[in-house]
Design goal:
The chain is an alpha/beta fold and 317 residues long. The protein has helices spanning 13-30, 47-57, 72-82, 102-110, 128-145, 161-166, 177-183, 209-227, 232-262, 274-301; strands at 3-9, 34-40, 61-65, 87-90, 116-120, 157-160, 189-193. Strand 2 (34-40), helix 2 and strand 3 (61-65) form a beta-alpha-beta unit. The two termini are 28 Å apart.
Length: 317
């Protein structure tokens, strides 16, 4: 199989027939073996019935129906696991992504050797209430991830088959797939300006809560990739630092009290000083962080995936 097109969707029945016709036209013209895979994320508008009709008309159209609405990331993850193509293309089902971009995306993966190519909707047909938060989100993600893309959230992307098999997407992490791929060792990430059409059917699934969840997921990805297999490096370092600061504060309080006694200067009780309670609290928090690191190490050590690493090639084994 040369190409797998993975399309997550939620209540997009009206656009499916038109989208499928365009995909057959474009992919058929490329002369490649392909499959079009719709991932129905709990639609309630008859989308699954439409997918069944499209499959009956052409077996290259395939579908996965999730039991309820889990979100775009789980839908993509199911599609990635099922995809058989050497190149995997993802796109949205709302007709805002143009199938005519697929041949060039495929060429960039196969001829130029990119691991991942992300679309860039340079000219968007979205309201200002969506474009401004998107610009802020992209700027924050560029800074945090070090991946220099203009449009992380563009659904139109192309991947080498091995990339989608090596990554796991959950929560709201589909926005950070380039970041996840980079952390898994796929460093050749490109970008292509793509057409963006106005929405023709249905309504947008956009909401500002997605940016709050997305920001939290960005923190999660950063933490998990950096400390997931060595949590003590984070909790131990933080605990040691906080405990040490508390210990220094305690020495200061006791030292100032001892100095007052030796010089016969009247001084307040140790327990009357705010610094004493700050020091005590810091030492308790430091000890708790340190213990949290030990517990996290025990959890990581007993994880079934603690020694799972991506191996590209083996020689003589």
């Amino acid at each position: 199989m040369d190409i797998s097109v993975v399309i997550p969707l939620l209540n997009e029945r009206e656009s499916l027939r038109e989208l499928t016709a365009k995909l057959h036209e474009v992919l058929g013209g490329m002369g490649k073996a392909y499959e079009v895979m719709f991932i129905d994320d709990g639609s309630r508008d008859g989308s699954w019935e439409e997918i069944q009709r499209l499959h009956a008309a052409d077996a290259r159209v395939k579908g996965i129906r999730l039991g309820r609405n889990y979100g775009k990331s789980p839908a993509l993850n199911e599609g990635f696991m099922a995809a058989q193509g050497k190149v995997v293309i993802t796109m949205d089902a709302d007709l805002q992504d143009d199938p005519e971009e697929i041949p060039e995306l495929y060429r960039m993966i196969t001829a130029e050797g990119y691991d991942l190519v992300s679309g860039w909707k340079k000219k968007r047909h979205d309201p200002l209430s969506k474009t401004l938060p998107t610009k802020l989100f992209n700027a924050t993600t560029r800074w945090a991830s070090g991946v220099k893309l203009h449009d992380f959230n563009c659904g139109l992307k192309a991947y080498k088959g091995e990339v989608v098999k090596a990554i796991e997407v959950y929560g709201e992490m589909h926005r950070y797939i380039p970041f996840i791929a980079k952390k898994e060792g796929f460093h050749k990430i490109g970008e292509k300006v793509v057409k963006h059409h106005p929405r023709k059917y249905g309504k947008t699934k956009f909401g500002l809560d997605r940016f709050i969840n997305g920001f939290l997921d960005l923190l999660t990805i950063t933490f998990v990739f950096r400390f997931g297999k060595k949590p003590m490096h984070f909790f131990g370092a933080m605990g040691t630092l906080v405990f040490f600061l508390g210990f220094l504060a305690t020495l200061w309080v006791l030292g100032s009290k001892l100095f007052s006694l030796l010089t016969h200067v009247r001084a307040p009780l140790v327990t009357d000083q705010p610094l004493f309670y700050i020091a005590l609290t810091s030492m308790i928090i430091g000890a708790q962080l340190f213990l949290a690191g030990f517990v996290a190490e025990l959890v990581a050590r007993n994880s079934a995936e603690r020694n799972n690493y991506r191996v590209d090639e083996r020689l003589g084994l």
